[in-house]
Every structure is written in structure tokens, then in C-alpha cells.
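Per your request, structure below.
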């Protein structure tokens, strides 16, 4: 089975690539420096030649709804058109649990982009050729946020009540959905409900930096108060925050 991973140099794309290769899957890594631009469409059809499955792990870093909707919607339409042209059997779209819910994303532009992505794929592809894997937030997200919302010794992390997991565990669930087509879309979440700001604080304690992590209220009350927590996820992963921290900070 030949699989193209779009966004293969990213946090989850790289983990998925490793996982699929370990499983003996023939994988093509695609991102802009390999000559594939999923936003303009450049190189997509050539990259998809002979592929059975394409996994969309692309990302844009923005809080702007307009930019997120434009990026994720455009990429989904270009990927779907190229998948049709190249005869690709199935597209796997990586999304976020409850991000498409208008009550959850009303004040969170990035999640409005994820809603546009899911809708664009549903509009373009029949259900039999589309799998949506919705993951909860990753422990790594707190670290990414601390990297971008930082001023000297202080970093900010949004209060987000979620059921986080490691990106490695999310990649494993994604790899399973690549190898065997699930009968329905999948939700994958971690073992406990936590606040993303507390994850940031736990990472900073282990890393010894930044000195202060402050939780900030952004993105609307649904994000803070449990709107992102799934009722009954299809897959519950086992790696706890403490276990993940132990692995990340092993000497
Ligand atoms: N963070 C979370 O907690 C979480 C949870 C659930 C789902 N997700 C979803 O997972 C996906 C991946 O997130 P991530 O954090 O792994 O992303 P990331 O680390 O920011 O990596 C993004 C990837 O997309 C590629 N990319 C960006 N623009 C591209 C373009 N125009 N054409 C081709 N490739 C492009 C990048 O490579 P180049 O820049 O080299 O092109 C890179 O490989 C996102 O859709 C996100 O919504 C994230």
C-alpha cells in the first residue's frame, strides 16, 4: 500500500511517517521543500501517482479565522481534486475533536478553519473515500504555544480544558486508520481531562524554563469549560502526562 503524508515534516507528520515505515508501508513524504505545495496545488498530482491513501497533516499557524478558513479549505479542495485526478482511493483528514462545533469555535478562528477543512473534504469526496480522524489536543501543543507566546522568562498558554494525548499516540491511531479503513470517522483522546495551561506549567517545571507560565483566557468560554472534551471517544490512549514527561526528559 502506497501512502502519501502531506505535512510530513511537521509534528505529527514526521511521527506518522516513522510509524508507517515501521509497519512496512510504502510512504511518500510531501511538504513544500519536497516540491509539493498543497495550497497552490503545485506537485500534488505527481506526488499522488500510484498512491492508495493520502493523509493530510498540513497546518497553518494563525489565529485569524479568514486565514485559517482560506488555508484549510483551499488545501482540502486542491488535495481532493488531485486525488481524483491521480485515482487515489482514500483521503485521511486529520482534524480536532469538536473544533467544527460552531458553539466551540465561535471565538476561535483556527478551529473555524478546521471546520472549513472537514466541510470541504465532505463536499468534494464521497464518504467511502474519506476518513476524518479527530484528535484531542497533544501534550506537545502546550510546548508549541509556550514557544510562540513568550516574552523573556514568561510564557502564556491558553486555558483549554481538553483530554490530551501525545502526538506519538495520535500518530499510531492515524497509522491504523491508514492501514485499515475504519467503518466510521474516529475520535482519539488521552487518558485524563486536563487544562492545557497546567500542561505548560508541568513542562516548564521539568525543563527549568520558562520561569513563569501563565494561563490566559482566549477563544471563548466553551474552550475553557469543556467544549473540547469528547463524550465517548473511539480510541482512548494510555500515555499519561507524567509518563510523556518522563520520556521527554529522560536523561
Ligand atoms: N496540535 C494539536 O494538538 C493538534 C491536535 C489535533 C489535530 N491537529 C492537526 O494536526 C495537523 C498537523 O499539525 P502539526 O502541529 O503537526 O503541524 P506542524 O508541526 O505545524 O507542521 C505542518 C506541516 O505542514 C506542512 N505545510 C504547511 N504548509 C504547506 C503547504 N502549503 N503545502 C504542503 N505542506 C505544507 C509543513 O511543511 P513545510 O512548511 O515544509 O511545507 C509541515 O510539514 C493540523 O491540521 C492540526 O490542526 C493538531
Amino acid at each position: 500500500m502506497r501512502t502519501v503524508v502531506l505535512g510530513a515534516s511537521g509534528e505529527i507528520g514526521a511521527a506518522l511517517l516513522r510509524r508507517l515505515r515501521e509497519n512496512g508501508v510504502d510512504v511518500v513524504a510531501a511538504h513544500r521543500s519536497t516540491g509539493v505545495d498543497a495550497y497552490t496545488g503545485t506537485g500534488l498530482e505527481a506526488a499522488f501517482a500510484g498512491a492508495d491513501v493520502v493523509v493530510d497533516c498540513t497546518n497553518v499557524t494563525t489565529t485569524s479565522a479568514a486565514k485559517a478558513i482560506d488555508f484549510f479549505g483551499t488545501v482540502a479542495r486542491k488535495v481532493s481534486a488531485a486525488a481524483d485526478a491521480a485515482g487515489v482511493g482514500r483521503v485521511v483528514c486529520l482534524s480536532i475533536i469538536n473544533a467544527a462545533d460552531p458553539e466551540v469555535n465561535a471565538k476561535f478562528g483556527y478551529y473555524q478553519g478546521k471546520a472549513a477543512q472537514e466541510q470541504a473534504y465532505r463536499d468534494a469526496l464521497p464518504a467511502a473515500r474519506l476518513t476524518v480522524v479527530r484528535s484531542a489536543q497533544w501534550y506537545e501543543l502546550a510546548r508549541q504555544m509556550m514557544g510562540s507566546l513568550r516574552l523573556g522568562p514568561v510564557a502564556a498558554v491558553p486555558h483549554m480544558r481538553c483530554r490530551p494525548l501525545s502526538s506519538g499516540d495520535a500518530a499510531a491511531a492515524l497509522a491504523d486508520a491508514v492501514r485499515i479503513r475504519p467503518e466510521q470517522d474516529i475520535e482519539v483522546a488521552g487518558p485524563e481531562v486536563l487544562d492545557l495551561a497546567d500542561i505548560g506549567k508541568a513542562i516548564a517545571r521539568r525543563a527549568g524554563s520558562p520561569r513563569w507560565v501563565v494561563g490566559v483566557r482566549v477563544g471563548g468560554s466553551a474552550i475553557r469549560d469543556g467544549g473540547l472534551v469528547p463524550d465517548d471517544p473511539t480510541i482512548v490512549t494510555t500515555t499519561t502526562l507524567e509518563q510523556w514527561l518522563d520520556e521527554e526528559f529522560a536523561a
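The first strand starts at residue 2 and ends at 6.

Regards,
D.
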